[in-house]
Amino acid sequence: xxxxxxxxxxLAWHVVVRNWGVYRKDFxxxxxxxxxxxALMLTALGMGLSPFIGQIGxxxxxxxxxxxxxxxxxxxxxxxxxxxxxxxxxxxESVFKAMLTTPIGVREVVMGEFLWGFIRAAxxxxxxxxxxxxxxxxxxPWAVFLFPLISGLLAVPCGAIGLLAxxxxxxxxxxxxxxxxxxxxxxxxSGVFFPLGDRPVLGVIVQLSPFYHGVRLLxxxxxxxxQPGEIAWHLGLLLLFTAGLGYWxxxxxxxxxxT
Amino acid sequence: xxxxxxxPSAAVPGSEPVIVARAVAKKFGDFAALQGLDLEVRxxxxxxxxxxxxxxxxxxxxxxxxxxxxxxxxxxxxGHDPAQNPRKIKERLGVVPQENALDEGLTVxxxxxxxxxxxxxxxxxxxxxxxxxxxxxxxDHKKEAPIKxxxxxxxxxxxxxxxxxxxPELLILDEPTTGLDPAVRHLIWEKVISYxxxxxxxxxxxxxxxxxxxxxxxxxxxxRGAVVGAGAPRALIDKETPGxxxxxxxxxxxxxxxxxQPSWELFHQGRQCCVRAPKIDDLLALQQTLGTTxxxxxxxxxxxxxxxxxxxxxxxxx
Lengths: 259, 318
Description:
The complex is a heterodimer. Chain A has 10 helices and 2 strands, in the order ααββαααααααα. Chain A is mostly helical. Chain A has one domain. In chain A, a hairpin with a 2-residue loop joins strand 1 (about 55) and strand 2. In chain A, helix 3 packs antiparallel against helix 5 (about 105-135) and helix 3 (about 60-90) crosses helix 6. The radius of gyration of chain A is 19 Å and the shape is globular. Chain A starts with a helix and ends with a helix. By secondary structure, chain B is α/β, with parallel strands linked by helices. In chain B, strands 5-6-7-3-8-9 form a 6-stranded mixed β-sheet, with helices on both faces. A 4-stranded antiparallel β-sheet of chain B has the order 11-12-10-13. Chain B has a 3-stranded antiparallel β-sheet with strand order 2-1-4, covered by helices on one side. In chain B, a hairpin with a 2-residue loop joins strand 1 (about 15-30) and strand 2 (about 30-40). The radius of gyration of chain B is 22 Å and the shape is globular. The interface of A and B includes residues 21, 93 and 104 of A.
């Protein structure tokens, strides 16, 4: 069993190597939007709105927004890679047709995509974190060491949503619908832009979003709020969503990659 | 470049079976792509799968390494069930899929290094192996070229290199030379033949009868997902369509019918009437009776067998 796991993991790692090989060819073009977007948001909303908003729980609006930017990077990195990115590999480039004739199986393909999503999000989330630190937006500077881990954890269930979309859409244009009706609401309503504490309905619904739990973990660490109960709650649910969505995505991808 | 049409079979009679299929069935919804397919391939054999588009060739090939999950019957490859344990099988085979499926974002060398990794080729052994295979396929000047810049023939050759990286025991070729120019086709045939001479097993699908005759010890003809004929190319011809074929213009149709003997067969190909008779003398006599020379007069070949068994040999008045 452990041997089987080691072999499987090794093969999944080859998928990561493959993705990295393609990714690094266009490194600047690949890396810039995921960093430019949060920078732009922070400038427009953080700097722009801060004077009008005043303080939220003792934080300036820019400080409030900061951890959400890490989450945003992780979400978009993971979702776009596993939706458009995976779909193009599967449909237009037939990457898996040849890959699946080697010892790599669908399980390793999916595991590889999750690993790759984790690593990319960790790197990007960490980079955004350093940027926030330099801007003086982290009340708890040590959070910068936690950001890669939380970003990576957050990326896996978000990537699973992307894989599910890839397995279910009938053509590439339908990702736009998934984005507009699922990803955008998750993004705008998960506490990145405003606190949900006093909104009973939204506060409950949002518990169903893995993104929200990641956002909260990032916020608690960035703001230096050590609340073990809340951390356990969000971490637990994040892992639960990771397992559930990850397995569901795997089942769906098996169905689409084998006939 | 010479290819011996009668290259001796490397198959040892009674050698162990590599592929064993018993009543293999595959349904896509209501459509039965494979219905009770039986076949066996032994070590060292080259077996050709022939059949019209949609006969189930690619579906069956997919079943061999678990890309397609059969819905009925028993199937083993190297003694393993591909639906249960595909990795055990995939470690020992190489596939040239119908679409090359090369990684377009990478160069030739990057593609091959990546696949050597996938196949678990030892790191030190990988580079010399890749270089050797690229040289064999006359691709060594393209090592740093991105895949998108390669011609169709080069991509095909590279897909061959990729399939051979791990020195597989079984090579599966899905329409290996479709759309290739004659020079590349000959190069590929030569490689398949030398690979076979090393005692390896090959399964190939093709629409080219000539290719099947050159490469294969044994032909299996599929139609509508079942085997309709099997045997060595020559034996199949002698069994199914023995004799000679004369082709005449359509105008002679009525007169040929009048002259037709019980041991002859009349069939149509396009706007031409074909007569098959056991002896060439029968057809020479028919020419005299009709007062014309046949457009073509030839021994029966594999294409005749194929057309007959797949029902594509159009019947009278069709």
